[in-house]
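assembly run, all chains below
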Amino acid sequence: MRAIYLIARREYLSYVATWGFWLSLASVPLFMLIGASIPALVQSAQPVRHYVVIDETDRGLDAVIQASIERERREQTRAALEAAAAVSADTATRERALAAFDADPLGLGGLDDALDILGMQGSADMIAAGTGRMIRLEAPARTLDELRPYLLGERQVATPDGPRSLFAAIFISQEAGSDLPLINYYSTSVTEQSLSGAARRALRDHVREQALAARGLDPAEIRELSSLEPEMRNFNPATVDDSEVGAADWAPFIVAVVLAIMLWTAIFSVANMLLTSLIEEKGGKIIELLLSTVRVRDLLIGKLLGVAAVSFTLFAVWGLIGTTLMLIAGTFLQGIDPEIAGFIAEAVQPGLFLAALGYFLVGYLMYGAIFLALGSLCETLHDAQTLMSPLILVLMLPLMILVFAMRSIDSVAVQIVSWVPIWTPFIMIARLPSDPPLWEIAGTTAVMLLTLIVVLWGAASVFQQGALGHANADSVKRVFSRKKPVRDEE
Amino acid sequence: MTTPALDVTGLTKTFSGFPAVRDVSFTVPAGSITGFLGPNGAGKTTTLRMALGIIRPDAGSATLFGQPPTLRALDRVGFLPEERGVYRKMTAEQVIALFARLKGVPAVEARKRAAAALERFGLAASAGKKVKELSKGMAQKVQIIAAIIHEPDFIILDEPFSGLDPVNQAMLEDVILEQAAAGRTILFSTHVMAQAERICDRIVLMARGQKIFDGKVDEALAVVPRLVTIGVDSDDDISALLSGFGEVTRAEKDADGVTLWQIALKPGVDPQHVLRACVEAGVRLTRFEPVRPHLHDAFVRLVSAGDPLQPVEGQ
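ok done. output:
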């Protein structure tokens, strides 16, 4: 036990007592935060889009598009204002602020007054920026050929923000014999579809309203008809109180799949850490000195436990950061969007996290032992990579299964692969929220634990041979190629 | 009778059909300095690994202080392997303290001993430096300290002099003698016969996986005929006079024109008998030089006498 503790301690400190470890530990939540913020950052950093509409129908459709876009932007700004008010103000102040905003029912004229009431002066750009700005300009020309230089950036048009090139030109025509307008949209940006989508929605609603009006309906009736929508309610017969299924009920399933993927990533990364450290030790010729002091089994277990402790340190710190962030986010979102807050609350599944830790431990010990055994046969990382390639492919398979089976996690195929012991940790953790039968959980766990014992025993034997140079990467190749052995020992 | 520090009996090990060690038996008496000699590929390292329980023998057994090589027994052993290295990212003091603790020395005592040993070996200023920052010689000293920091009763050094410069070789030789003077048993393998001859009480000689000699250094030297070189101030043939003492050969004349004769003495013949015979026969001697045999000669003679090993059939 003394030797196992000392080897594990040394292994643990060799990672934890370095700046690199803490930097990489801090960098993961940081990168996750940056990753999560990217969509919002991209949205808020959207440039102002200047566009022109050439309405060849003379039905005032250019104004219809502009009004629709401004209405959508106003609605989005109002929603952002409402969210900001929910966090920072009491009910009365919130209502006063929204009333001030609604003083200009068609535009953003009331935004500054509303922000004054909320004490958020100067935040107008921040509130409105996220909704993106699209400004319609008077067209400098009427034909595509004439407008092309403006669209290609060769010429610029005067805008309230100074001379700019055109983001898009929308040509609206009407084919003979049809009342429906034809929209030809020109822009060098083929991926940005928000303006073309807005134009299509605006004219779709407009022609529908026109058609209904032509059938004698008044505007109020048209609005009523347009808002008609069936009510859909989802239930799960397994729930005791027959409550409706909401987004929160999805949380455990999503969390389980995310945990499975995290498990895979963690095991792969940590097993790689073990491999690198072993190759380094072999290169430094430390192994034999250790083996005269500790037994191979103790060395193997010590190394595995040391790096496992490193992983648990990572999980503990990330878990602490994650829990804190979720608690803050849950409290913050409770006032804004109770549904998201409920989702976050349901995502915290202590049982699932506990199972994930157990599966991590077994999976890590299995793959870690295999990596160590194979690593002991190699002199360089290059050798190791060659030998590891088939194992990495085997390790990739459950990840691929998870991706494809995400929507039918309880299919027969997934149930069968749960019994492959080296895949059990990843597949079963993803299946747990769908309540698989107890015998299946117990059975797969038993097979997995038995396999773990066999793998540890086999790995210790290979490790002993490899660590002392009695076997190497060529020995493995010989097993497959049936080459005659060569003498490699004094 | 004192329990030997190491007793190996019939040790045999085969790797992939090649016999690395074949039926090797010997004993390292407590308190002795034993040289474990043999050419490359003789099976020395494999024998030491089996003796320490690092690898399992195919046949035979080894005991340390009369016990199988368990971890408890190994705590009384300090081992410096041939393939050696230490954790390069740890400091010299940390490495030594780690190995002391692995051998059962309490943490505080381990650090205290590490500091004292570094001082004793002239490395006190480098105690806090990482091993990768040390010179090769300094790193080797750290390895040697790590092997003996737990004050073992039995020290096994596998090729300890290889890679060391003459200054550090002398230093290591002093360490070995110092440890032996403190009552510890030493077993070390080496190619440097001069050192083995200077330091060892006994030698075990291996060749081609087999033990070919085991005994005191003098006994090893006895297998080499003692030589006597005689210089004669005439062209007289004295071979008939001296042939009774051993094999007589006439060598070239030296630079002064003196005829040189060489006699490989028979076992038990004293060079003084040769001198007396020459004097009594009136031979005009200009030179009489008994040549002391060296371990190197014994080594070469014993090793060249052995049979090459053959692969084991069926493996």
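Residues 6-221 of chain B form a domain with the Rossmann fold fold (CATH 3.40.50.300).

The CA atoms of residues 224 and 298 of chain B lie 6 Å apart.

not gonna interpret more than that til we talk
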